[in-house]
Amino acid sequence: MRKPLLAGNWKMNKTIDESVALVKELAPLIKDVADREVLVCPTFPALKSVADAAANTNIMLGAQNIFWEEKGAFTAEVSGPMLVAAGCKYVIIGHSERRQYFGETDETVNKRVKAALKFNLLPIVCVGETLEQREANEMMKVVETQVKEGTKDLSADEWKKITIAYEPVWAIGTGKTASPEQAEEVHAFIRGLLPAEVKDSVRILYGGSMKPDNVADLMAKENIDGGLIGGAALKAADFAAIVKY
Ligand code: 13P
After folding, report:
1. Catalytic residue list contains 18
2. Pocket lining: 210 vs ligand 1, CB cutoff 6 Å
3. Each residue of 197-245: pLDDT tens digit?
4. Binding site, annotated residues for substrate
5. Is 97 a catalytic residue?
6. Residue 177 clears pLDDT 90, i.e. is over it
7. What is the pLDDT of residue 158?
8. For the segment 126-156, what is each residue's pLDDT rounded down to a tens digit?
9. What reaction is this protein's catalytic activity (predicted)?
10. Measuring from atom 7 of ligand 1, which residue has the nearest CA?
11. How far apart are CA 59 and CA 79, in angstroms?
12. β-strands 122-127, 163-166: how paired?
């Protein structure tokens, strides 16, 4: 009942031309895929060009962040209506790199989630523990706090629009994937935190060195409903292989 979502987070990679080239290379490789959703999340400057290049394909567009105000004197920020106008349907919120380098907190995650919902964007809320937290046995507590605080005060209708991404920080960009069992343990725990009305419908994506050769084993797990893919999403052939796991 949960349609898999395979989402490429391009992070701070690719110029406009390179982004358009990637989506044009990707589109024919996955054109027959209908039983799962495909999303790419380029940098802000490339959004509109990628949206145009992906028109009439099955590739959806997402942004990597959103500010909670609609407009005004907030230098360098980008608002929900601007993302919608550029063609975005989804927005990644609270990525661990935002938390680590840019002062993102559970409180600002919650503000962004509410702004995304207000402006008709679908939030992908990222959570995940560091290696230190895992080794100190704080993993579940960290993830629980991030999920609960990041999605605080949402109605059941709002919850229907949420996707959670579990990305253990130690697995991001390191080539070290969580084993399917390690990931499933946390995914099942996260599902247990969801409100009863949406427990079976909210998708929980896995992120962290997802690759063509490990995607099938991860996706075979009951509570893993897709992936948020970094490095491997930058190569059309690799991302297409992941999409078609
Ligand atoms: P990698 O796939 O490069 O490990 O990145 C995962 C990620 O952070 C996706 O948001």
Report:
1. no
2. yes
3. 999 999 999 999 999 999 999 999 999 999 999 999 999 999 999 999 9
4. 9-11, 173, 209, 230-231
5. no
6. no
7. 98
8. 999 999 999 999 999 999 999 999 999 999 9
9. D-glyceraldehyde 3-phosphate = dihydroxyacetone phosphate
10. 230
11. 22
12. parallel
17-73 confidence digits (pLDDT tens): 999 999 999 999 999 999 999 999 999 999 999 999 999 999 999 999 999 999 999
Q: How far is the CA of 193 from the centre of ligand 1 (A)?
A: 24
> Could you tell me the distance, in angstroms and rounded to a whole number, from the CA of residue 167 to the centre of ligand 1?
8
> What is the rounded distance in angstroms from the CA atom of residue 166 to the CA atom of residue 96?
10
Judged on CB neighbours under 10 Å (0-12, 13-18, 19+), 24 is middle
CA-proximal residue: ligand 1, atom 2 (nearest): 230
Q: How far is CA 157 from CA 117, 197, 198, in A?
A: 10, 9, 9
Q: How far apart are alpha carbons 7 and 207 in whole angstroms?
A: 9
94-124 exposure pattern, b = at least 16 Cβ within 10 A, e = fewer: bbbbbbeeeebebebbbbbbbbbbebebbbb
| pLDDT value of position 176 | 84
Burial class (CB in 10 A: 0-12, 13-18, 19+), 175: exposed
Ligand 1 geometric centre to CA of 210 (Å): 7
How many angstroms separate the CA atoms of 200 and 192, rounded? 10
**Which residues line the annotated binding site?**
9-11, 173, 209, 230-231
Domains delineated in the chain: 5-243 (3.20.20.70)
Give yes or no for residue 87 CB within 6 A of ligand 1. Answer: no
Q: Quote the CA–CA distance of 227 and 210 in Å, as a whole number.
A: 7
Q: What is the pTM of this model?
A: 0.98
